[in-house]
Amino acid sequence: MSDPSLKVLVVEDSRTVGAFLSTTLRAFGYACEVVTTGAEALDHYGAAKPDLILLDVMLPDMEGFAVAERIRRDDPESWVPIIFLTSLESEDDLSRGIEVGGDDYLTKPVSRVVLKAKIHAMERIVAMRRRLIELTAQLSEANKALARQSEEDALTGLANRRMFDLILAREIEHSRRTKQPLTLVLFDVDYFKRYNDALGHIHGDQCLREVAQVLRRACRRATDLPARYGGEEFALILPNTPRTGARLLVQGVARLLAGARIAHPDSPIGEFVTFSGGMATVIASDTTSSLSLVRAADEALYAAKGAGRNRVISFDGDSAPAPAP
Description:
Layout lengths: L6 E5 L3 H14 L2 E5 L2 H11 L3 E5 L7 H11 L7 E5 L4 H9 L4 E4 L4 H40 L9 H18 L3 E8 L2 H8 L1 H18 L6 E6 L2 E7 L3 H18 L14 E8 L7 H17 L5 E3 L11
Parallel strand pairs: 1-2, 1-3, 3-4, 4-5, 9-10
Antiparallel strand pairs: 6-8, 6-9, 7-8
Helix pairs in contact: 2-3, 7-8, 8-9
Protein name: diguanylate cyclase
Catalytic activity: 2 GTP = 3',3'-c-di-GMP + 2 diphosphate
GO molecular function: diguanylate cyclase activity
């Protein structure tokens, strides 16, 4: 059965032959347009992108060979079958047609049986190409999904631990090369186990998603990376950011979290969810590593917890006031 969606462009300067081909193709069930010059063929191809071209070799303004060559040259990413219509039968002409991008020949006068057979053959190729394009698109989407899964935390949509490790190593190298400051902040949701014990893990997961959204909203530069470090721990990688700039950003995170007013039914320090944070800023040297920077931020985080939580402490001992509820 013919594919009614197959669009055929006939390029034929003989009105008699053009009318015969048009009538025959439509009787076969194909959509068909007829043009009479090479220039019209190129214009129509660019505008309509037909699925098959029947191309007369001898046209009033240029050879069909030149038309085919232009189509192949100007649109190398696409492919459309080109069947030459010709009364030429020399081997040199056949060879030239293939070299410029033709796929087959029909000798005039055109036989309806041969025409149908050749178009059916090309139709199968077009169908296979469409399927290949469809499968390629599906594969591309699948690869993108796999890439997202390898980079994103499934619960929060932030960068996952693997992505965090990759980006932190890259930014340490960038800081080492440019002599620009790099700040790492580790956050821990205060008394999160009590939150889970009081409300259950479903509410706990929602709490973590809301905290992640707060971190995402606070990061306005494309280079800033919020990540889920693990469990109820989060991280911010802040390239080209000195301690003072990081402090301002962390204060913004605290305000956003306070504004979210996530109720905590069993927190000893307030009625809403809060966080503790540890911050470390370096201009990376040859001895700086991901492990050393994480260890410094982690030590500051534990100092913040020991100081009563609901605060951020820098590795050098600078402590921020507890964020207002």
